[in-house]
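Appendix B. Raw example, untouched.
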Amino acid sequence: MFYLIIILTFVLWALFTILFEYSFLIRRRSDDLSSSHLLSLREDLFRTRLLAHHTRLEIVWTFIPSLILVIMAIPSFALLYSMDEVFLPQITFKAIGHQWFWSYEFSDYFSSLGDVSFDSNMLFEPELNTGEYRLLLVDNPIVLPVDTNIRVLITSMDVLHSWAVPSLGIKVDACPGRLNQASLFIKRQGVFYGQCSELCGVNHGFMPIMVKAVSKDLYNSWIISKVS
């Protein structure tokens, strides 16, 4: 955005300068020009043509944006590489997309019924209290600890879905028959909301994601309640 503002400011300045100079010349031509005005008119024409039809200037303002893109690409490649880098995860959970809800599995823990797993369905308007977020709250939010390397495995049971939580910087497609992987490291406690970001059917807009980031002690208590 910083670079775009600079480029937009320069382009608008050049555009309005050209428009102003041409409109000024048109008004001058409509007047009765005496011999004393011819010299200033030629100077105005030269200045306007220098800005509007300047080969070197066009080369420069084509080269500079290209150079800016190259400068922006270098740190972007490093960022993309770091986003795909997977650290040794301390917690792994699987997000599974269904029509039209999410289910979660924690295979690191075992209960009497097997893996810790649960479904997460959206709360409809009659179930909401005053001030709660419509189309974002779920009955079983996923709880994750802060300051922990977390691995997310994402897949689907039917059609294409997308597990997307913008505040956590994650958006990964859930493909049937395929496991996609992403990493999370949450730095602060709070509640983070997301939604399925693929057109997965008629109720596409009604399968939200709700992530509760809590301390490690509260996370341990939550896991114990799910295991027991």
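End of appendix B.
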